[in-house]
Amino acid sequence: MREFLVQITTTVPEGTSQDEVGRRRAAEAVRAAELAADGHLARLWRPVGELRSIGVWRAADEEELHEKVLGTLPLRPWMSLTVTPLEPHPNDPGDRSGSTV
């Protein structure tokens, strides 16, 4: 699987009821847990004081990421996304494979 850095900003449409927002947020938490269990969601952060998320997501390719992963999030219709494909860096201290490029 490839890795992608995904920045997500969620904007609730004006006039949306708090019940609808709550329902979608609860469903979002469940779906995120499922995607993490399936290996698609590796890490997720929220910058301090901001209403956006930054995460490392995994998928076979960008098409799968959009259609079968991010597209299944209950809040997706309210999201704007910035997706950056990632590749391993030879000096990554987290890479324990022992390979040198």
3D structure, described in words:
- This protein is an alpha+beta fold and 101 residues long.
- 28% of the residues lie in helices and 30% in strands.
- Strand 2 and strand 3 (52-59) form a beta hairpin.
- The chain has a 4-stranded antiparallel sheet with strand order 2-3-1-4.
- The two termini are 20 Å apart.
- It is built from 2 helices and 4 strands, in the order βαββαβ.
- It has helices at 18-37, 62-69; strands at residues 2-10, 41-45, 52-59, 79-86.
Structural class: alpha+beta
**CA-atom Rg in angstroms:** 15 Å
The overall strand count is 4
Shape: elongated
Mean pLDDT: 93
Q: Strand portion, in percent?
A: 25-35%
Biggest sheet features: 4 strands, antiparallel
Strand arrangement within the widest β-sheet reads 2-3-1-4
Fraction of residues in helix = 25-40%
Put simply, the count of helices is 2
* Gap from first CA to last CA: 20 Å
Detail the poorly predicted runs.
Answer: none
Q: Would you list the SSEs in sequence order as H and E? A: EHEEHE
